[in-house]
């Protein structure tokens, strides 16, 4: 490992000597090329930062929506249970009323929305992870 590091050090020293021995215009050209590369990387980094912040904000918004949807589902489920208990208390053979059917349908729609939101959040988290990897790579 020490030999490998010494070899790399010799290569770098060779590159430095080569740069020193270059005519001034080639040095300037290399400096300009490196500055341009640096500017491109900084621009890409800034873009990635903005995208990451945007995705983070959107993820937080979706998580809040998901939490409120879950609360609504729980509330509707409780309402449905209470309604069914009341109906069973008055008559065991009674058919659920139109209102309880509506509540049940609303609950089903909200459950579908919740699974869609969960899938969207998973997709955004994966995209966020990939962007973070790209940022780390840059």
From TrEMBL:
The residue range of the signal peptide is none
Q: Record's Gene Ontology CC terms?
A: cytoplasm
Q: Which domain of life is it from?
A: Eukaryota
Sections of the chain in a coiled coil: none
Where composition is biased (Basic and acidic residues), the residues are: 1-15
Keywords tagged on the record: Coiled coil
Instruction: Give me the ranges of the annotated region Disordered.
Output: 1-24
The answer to whether keyword Repressor applies is no
One GO BP annotation is:
toll-like receptor 3 signaling pathway
Annotated PANTHER family: TNFAIP3-INTERACTING PROTEIN 2, TNFAIP3-INTERACTING PROTEIN COILED COIL FAMILY MEMBER
UniProt-recorded name of the protein: TNIP2 protein
Q: Which organism is it from?
A: Atrichornis clamosus
């Amino acid at each position: 490992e020490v030999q490998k590091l010494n070899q790399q050090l010799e290569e770098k020293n060779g590159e430095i000597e080569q740069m020193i021995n270059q005519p001034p215009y080639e040095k300037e050209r290399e400096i300009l090329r490196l500055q341009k590369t640096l500017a491109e990387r900084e621009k890409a980094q800034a873009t990635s930062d903005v995208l990451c912040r945007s995705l983070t904000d959107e993820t937080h918004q979706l998580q809040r929506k998901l939490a409120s949807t879950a609360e609504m589902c729980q509330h509707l489920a409780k309402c449905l249970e209470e309604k069914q208990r009341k109906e069973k208390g008055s008559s065991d053979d009674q058919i659920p009323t139109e209102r309880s059917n509506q509540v049940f349908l609303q609950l089903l729609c909200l459950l579908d929305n919740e699974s869609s939101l969960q899938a969207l959040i998973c997709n955004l988290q994966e995209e966020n992870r990939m962007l973070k990897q790209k940022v780390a790579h840059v």
